Amino acid sequence: MKYVGAHVSASGGVQNAPLNAARIGARAMALFTRNQRRWQVPPLSRDAVRGFRHNLAVAGIRPEHVLPHDSYLINLAHPVADTLRRSRAAFEDELARCQMLGLKLLNFHPGNHLGKSSEKDALARVADSLNRALDKVAGITAVIETTAGQGTSLGWRFEDLARILEQVAHPGRVGVCIDTCHIWAAGYDIGSRKGYEATFSEFDAIVGLPLLCAMHLNDSLTPQGSHVDRHACLGDGTLGWQPFEWIMKDPRFDDMPLILETTDPDRWPEEIRRLYRFAAKRKTRT
Question: Which single residue of 13, 77, 143, 192 has CA 20 to 30 Å from 165?
Answer without folding.
Answer: 192
